[in-house]
Amino acid sequence: MNPMKILNSKPSISLCMIVKNDLAKNEDLDLLGNVYIKLNQYDKALDIYLALYQLYPNQENISRRIAGIYAKLGHTDQAMKYLDL
Predict the structure, then answer these.
(1) Which residues lie below 8 Å from residue 51, measured CB to CB, with a gap of 6+?
(2) Is residue 65 included in any domain, yes or no?
(3) Per-residue pLDDT, 2
(4) Which of 12, 68, 76, 80 is deepest in the core (most CB within 10 A)?
């Protein structure tokens, strides 16, 4: 899938379906999530990291990203849930 198409599309949890069997795409989505964070588009970044979390719930770096995004959005309680691995 074209990364620019993802950038311009509405975020969706169905991202899991895009990356389910392709590690390279997972790494690309991680990079895209970082881009959204740098652009202060936290809702889009959150969708990406929540999709990755569904695939890799034990990846501490994904949990930390989600916690950081929730914190930026002012959802401290949600952030704390992802810090308790």
Answers:
(1) 13, 14, 15, 16, 19, 29
(2) yes
(3) 47
(4) 68
Residue 3 in any domain: the answer is no
The residue with tokens 């074209």 is 2
Q: Is residue 2 part of a domain?
A: no
Domain assignment present for residue 47? The answer is: yes
Distance separating alpha carbons of residues 33 and 42, to the nearest angstrom: 9
pLDDT profile of the chain (85 residues), mean per 10: 48 52 70 94 95 90 96 95 81
Cα-based distances in Å from 30 to 1, 13, 49, 77: 14, 14, 7, 24
